[in-house]
Amino acid sequence: MDPSLEESQAIALLDLLSARSMVSTTEILNTLGMSAQMLSVAVRHLASWGLQIRNLDEQAYRLDSPVQRLRVSRIRSYLPPTWRDKIGISVMIVVDSTSTRLLCDWPDQVPSAIFAECQTNGRGRGDRRWHSPFGANLYLSVAWTFNQPSSELSTIPLAMGVCCVRALASLGVEGIAVKWPNDLWFQGAKVGGILVECYRSNGVLCVVTGVGINVNMNRGQLRSVEILWTTLKEALVIQNKAVPDRNAIGSAVLANIADGLKLFSGSGFGPFRDEWESSDLTRDREVCVISGSGNMMGVARGIDDKGALRVETVAGMIHVQSGDVSLLVAPK
Ligand code: BTN
Fold first, then answer.
1. Pocket lining: 195 vs ligand 1, CB cutoff 6 Å
2. Which of 31, 179, 219, 288 has the fewest CB neighbours in a 10 Å radius?
3. Considering the entire predicted model, what is its pTM?
């Protein structure tokens, strides 16, 4: 959907303010061909997206956190030649959820990916909300089709976790772990999550892999979350590295997911298993499995062939299916 005039003007203002530390009101009006009233509408529009804009004595404007916008051409330019012209890519400014969009309106081209700067109804596992502040993180979903029966596909979410670890490692982010079933963690805090959803249509399984990765989000943008979280920025600071362009991160995640879906189509989970196990955060650690039928303590012992988590309890080994449980990892 094309942006409205109001939205286009807000985006133009955003780009201008993101390019410089401060821009005078006169320059904004002249450069963007706006009236003072249009400018105040655009400022309100940016504020409605959660962006903090300072008006300095009516003379100039400043954006607290400049936004490096996602652009289809940049994402494509970072893709390896094997995928560069073979994936449908769109970038939306504001959307309810990139995954919902693909599920509701299946694309003609597969694979196809939707990225968004902001989600108003970002969804996490177990009906939880995925906080999606504007321009701070990565929110993307990828559509793919499979011909296999659903019973052979229960390990896709785990394979997608491995793809994200590969993508981040290719950008120099070391030490990302997978926390069963498909969280991405860095040093005791969640840095990303994956939500795989599917439906069957005319015998084909349509699968949407949604990935959310915290990139630059600051503490003020997300206070009320029940879980410890971190960002790639925080992880990279510890490693004395700069945060790559969000377009490059998005492209690496997309390329690895597309590679992974293709590989999974032909070979299943086998080629991912070793990497999943070596990045497994809970392996041999005490966990508490929380489910509708109560909590259960035990020691995590990796995954079975269907991707269920094996937990050794006093009552013996149990196999926890994904979907209806949360997991608390006891400190080491
Ligand atoms: C989780 O850890 O609970 C999974 C989070 C998945 C979030 C991503 S953001 C892009 C895509 N769109 C959504 O609404 N959810 C996924």
1. yes
2. 219
3. 0.94
